[in-house]
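Q: Fold this one first, please.
A: Sequence and structure below.
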Amino acid sequence: MGESRSEGRLASGVRALATGLVYLVVLAFVVTGVSLVVSPGDDAAASGGGGGAGRERITLASLKPSTTRTTIPRAPKDPDPQGVTDGEVVHPLDVLKLYAAPGRRPFAKVTPKQFGDTWLPVVERRGGWSRVLLPSRPNGSTGWLRTRDVERATTPYLVRVHLGSRELELFLQGSSVGRWPVAIGAPETPTPPGRTFLLGQVVDEAQSFSPLILPLGSHSDTLDSYGGGPGTVALHGWPDDAVFGQAVSHGCIRVPSDALGALSQVPLGTLVLVDEQ
C-alpha cells in the first residue's frame, strides 16, 4: 500500500510537470507569434527561410525616392522595351512604396510631384497592382504600385522617335498626326533607345534655345549631367533648323517649332518609344 501511494503521488507530479511544460510551450508560441505578426500595411516580407527570421518593417523614410536625380540599381528592368500600351497613366496620390513584384518587399518610393504632377505609364497589370515605368536611373526601370493608391487616366497620344531615320512621329488614337525631322544624340553621346515617357513640361522664357522643354523619364548613358542637371533626356526646340536630321546633340531630341507646339498638347505620362529604325 505504501508503495502504491508513493507511485500515485509520483504520477500526479509527473502529470503536473507535463501540464506546466505544455503551458510554457503554448505561451512561448503565443509570444513569438505576436512578435512576428505584421499587418498588411507594414509591407514586410521574409528574406528567406528560418521561421520568419529576417522579417522587418520597411518605412517610407528608409526608401530612396525614384526621381530623375536618383539611381536605384534594384529596380526591375522593363520586360518589353518597345511595347505599346493602351495609354493608361497613373498619378500617385501620396508618397507611395514601389515593389519589385506584387506582394514582395518595397525597394523604393515615388512622389506625387516632380516637374509638376508625377504621371507614370502603366506597362503591366496584375490583380490590384500596376507596373509603371520610373524616372530614375538606370534607364528602363520599373516598379509595382497598388492601383488603389493612384489616380488613373488614359492618354490618347503616343510619341515615336526613330533614331535611324532621325524623325519623330506623333500619334493620336492610333493615327499619325505629324512626322518631323529631328536632331538626336551624337555618336559619343547617343540618345538612349527604349521605352520612356513624358515626365514634365518646363517653360523658361529666359533661355534662348527653346521656350518649352519636355523632360523624359530617361537619361544619357554617357553623361552624368547636362549643364549641372542630372543628364535627363528631353524633347526641346532649337533655333537653327540646320541641325534637324543630324546626330549632333548631347542625347536630347531637338525638334522643329511646329513639332514642339504639337508636343505641348501631349499629357504627362504619355509613352515615348525610341527605336533604331
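Q: Good. Now the second chain.
A: Here it is, same layout.
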Amino acid sequence: MQTRMSELFSIRGKVALVTGGSRGIGLMIARGLVEAGARVYVASRKAEECERVAAELSATGECHALPADLGGEAGCRALAEALAAREPALHVLVNNAGANWGAPLAEYPDAAWDKVLALNVKSVFHLTRACLPQLEKASAPGDPARVINVGSIDGLRPPLLDTYAYSSSKAAVHHLTRHLAAKLAPRITVNAVAPGPFESKMMAATLDRFRDAIVASCPMRRIGEPDDMAGVAIYLASRAGAYVTGAVIPVDGGIAMR
C-alpha cells in the first residue's frame, strides 16, 4: 500500500537524540524534530544550558536534557547508557557535537588536533557504536533506524580560514558516514549533512567579518535559516528518507559546487 503523502514525512512518536543540541545547528535540528512530533533528547556539555533548552523546546513538544561530555569514549558510553535507562529504542541519532580551532599555519598547535578530532570524529564513532543496541531495537522493515552525522562544506572543499583540524575532521566525518552506512545496512541508515553558513555561535565571528562576501558567493544569495537545517533532518528521519544511506548532503545554498 502506497504511503499516504501526509505520512511520508512524519516522524511523530519517534525517539531522537541530538548531541550538541543546545545551540547552533544542533538546536535547529532539535527544534525541528520536536515540532514535528518526535520525543527528543538534547545532549550538551553544559548541564544548565541543556536543561534550559529542553524546557524551552518542551513548550511545543516533548524534549528532555541529557548533559554529556563527548570528548572521550567514556562520556559517549555514559550518554548511551543514560538514554537506554529512559528509552528501550532509539529511532534517530544526530551526531552534531563539534569543536573548531583557528590559528595561523605556523602557529597551529598539536592540542587543536587532539581536541577537534576527538570530538568531531571519534565521538561520532564511539557514540554510534554505543547506541547500536537501541538503534537496532528501533529498526523495522521498511523503516530503518537513522544516524545523521553533521559534517560541513569545509570537508568538501578547502576553506579560506586557518581551521586545519576542523576541515580535516569534517572530511573524515563524511567518509566515516559512508563506512558506517555500508556496515550497518539494511537495519540502520547513516547519512551526513554538510552545512554551509548558518547563524550560529561558531559562525558568528566569520559572519561579522565576511557576511556580504559569503552572501555574494552563495548562488541562493542568503545565509542558511533554521528551517533549512530542520527540513533535511526531518526528511532523513522520516519514511521519505528510508532508502537513502551513505549520502553526504550539502545544505549550503550551492556554495560547495562553486
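Q: Anything worth noting on the second one?
A: Residues 5-251 form a domain with the Rossmann fold fold (CATH 3.40.50.720).
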